[in-house]
Specification:
307 residues; alpha/beta; Metallo-beta-lactamase, Chain A; 2 domains; seven-stranded mixed β-sheet; 27% helix; globular
Length: 307
């Protein structure tokens, strides 16, 4: 069962010849979600081998252009591709006004529905849920209302130990009951606790996307124990004042957030165009949080299954 994050864009407000604005594709059990949609995101999806028609939902952190300008042409193109199922978009207000204007001028006869769900950026709330995953909002501290997103895989179903099946001579009905979490009563009246028979095949995994923000201990705390954290690191540590004034983070801020969360791995991105080589930023963050990696376009970070 896959759980992976593909970097589509890693630049900040000014795109460069080698970097597009923010965008990521999250793949959980072959269900694809788009997180932020900077300019050129549909081309980036195609370059990375991700069929845009597979996008189940879109999550927009805030309404600055470098995080949303690419969504509107994608909406149009999905109509040309023949999409018929609704597209759910989770974004702060007033996204609905932007969407209404786009549809009126460019996609009045769109063959599918775009459904906007308002993200209240001051609330930590469950936004989306299905049998596989939950997506929660994470309040962030930017110059405009902004939220990050926490993707939490649901616990996998229980497996029954095949040796215990033989040992206790379990029937099909008893195996099914054990998988539901029930204890089993044998023909002799022996009660077998469910924990004696079953196990989780792997630990549920998680991914946190912390977009444009000053350092926030609260946001980091809401991501406690996360397997993979993306945190913007627009500036080097020496630019702390610029970062604070503009609602952004430095490399040290990102590393502090990962430490606060107890994250296993950190990916930094949203690089200012002044940095031609992000390696300098990565090394700064690694000095505080060694498991730091760069957001590099086309690179996929996989969260492996663990017992």
């Amino acid at each position: 069962m896959s759980f992976a994050v593909t970097i589509l864009g890693c630049a900040s407000a000014k795109p460069t010849p080698s970097r597009h604005p923010s965008g990521q594709a999250v793949n959980i059990h072959e269900q694809h979600y788009l997180v932020d949609a900077g300019e050129g995101v549909q081309q980036q999806l195609i370059r990375c081998g991700i069929n845009p028609l597979k996008i189940r939902a879109v999550f927009i952190s805030h309404l600055h252009g470098d995080h949303v300008f690419g969504l509107f042409p994608l909406i149009s193109t999905l109509g040309l591709y023949g999409r018929r199922t609704p597209l759910d978009v989770y974004a702060p207000a007033p996204f609905g006004e932007m969407l209404e204007t786009h549809l009126r001028f460019f996609d009045a006869e769109l063959p599918y529905e775009v459904v906007w769900h308002e993200v209240r950026t001051t609330k930590h709330a469950l936004l989306f849920e299905n049998r596989t995953v939950e997506v929660w909002s994470i309040p962030l501290r930017h110059r405009v209302p902004c939220a990050g997103f926490l993707f939490r895989e649901k616990e996998p179903p229980l497996n029954v130990d095949k040796f215990k099946i033989v040992k206790y001579g379990l029937s099909i009905a008893q195996i099914t009951a054990a998988k539901r979490g029930e204890e089993i009563v044998t023909e002799t009246g022996e009660v077998i606790p469910n924990g004696e028979l079953t196990y989780r095949p792997y630990r549920a995994r998680s991914y946190a996307y912390l977009s444009d923000t000053n350092f926030s201990a609260r946001a980091a705390g809401l991501c406690a124990g996360v397997d993979l954290m993306y945190h913007e690191a627009t500036y080097a540590a020496a630019e702390q004042r610029s970062a604070r004034d503009r609602g952004h983070s430095t490399t040290v801020d990102a590393a502090k957030a990962a430490l606060k969360a107890g994250a296993r791995r950190l990916v930094i991105g949203h690089y200012s165009s002044r940095y031609k080589d992000e390696g300098v930023l990565v090394e700064e963050a690694r000095a505080l949080f060694p498991e730091t990696w760069p957001a590099t376009e086309g690179v996929t970070y996989t969260i492996e299954k663990e017992p």
